[in-house]
Specification:
38% strand; 5-stranded mixed β-sheet; 6 helices; globular; binds zinc ion; 299 residues; alpha+beta; Ribosomal Protein S5, domain 2
Amino acid sequence: MSFSVSKQMSDEYILKTPVILDGIGFHSGKRNVIIVEDNIENDGLYVVQEGKRYKIDPFAVSTEQRTTSIVEGDQIIAMTIEHLLSALHALNIRNLNIVFEEGNEVPILDGSAEGYMQLIESEIELIRREVDVLEVTETVRQVAQGDSSRFVQIEPSDSDVMTIQSTVSYPDSRILKQEYIFKFSCLEDYRREIANARTSFPFTIESEEVIEETKSRLKGAIFTGENKNVNIYSSWNTDKTRHENEVARHKILDFLGDLNVLNIELSPRITIKLFRTGHAINNALARRIATSLLKNGNS
Ligand SMILES: [Zn+2]
């Protein structure tokens, strides 16, 4: 048994007033409008599409489009949910409906989680209640399919602060290697160190062709200008990055969002190691945890 659940009193937040997110989708490039509102049923995180509720759950996730999406069969219900879920995890909001009024993709905003936090934080109220906390009892390593050198590892620790160590390596690009160790003890840590780290492109071949191909795959990607949502590493990008290791930090942002499909608090007595991770590895770990908890009657 690698995982278990403990009960703990915790500071949680509820959303007092619904907030509207209106912006372009990273993949579709189209306008999407969503309303984020308190889930008065108190039964977790849901996506609402055309009046139907879909529970956010590790087994409802597809990472086929190199993003985290909620699907039903072949149908994409909600695309690119990871950055919003990351912000919700940091804010300890556990009951919410994400209602799609237009489109099926969460607006990408600036490619980080900062915009969601600012919007949601203006309407939240603190409550204290008993919650489930994920405990890790033995080390588990999840490797990428077909490449065992890429992995996420989750292990128990004696520390009272959760630590996430992130390493990225793109030897043929301008990034080469980045590392970051995040000590996650409170919301302020996340806000300061993780929330504003954007999606990045470490191009290995800096050609117009590659950039055009990327633009056609990601129709909502904005590479230049004041509100750009992609931090690119190329000879022609002279804009400053927000952190010297922004890519490694963004991997932590993604991991916290991808794991939040479990909608559970993480014990401070956990150490996590991310080595060249992606959404598929993160989701495989989330499924493994969910399966382990179900087996042990901790669902
Ligand atoms: Zn991301």
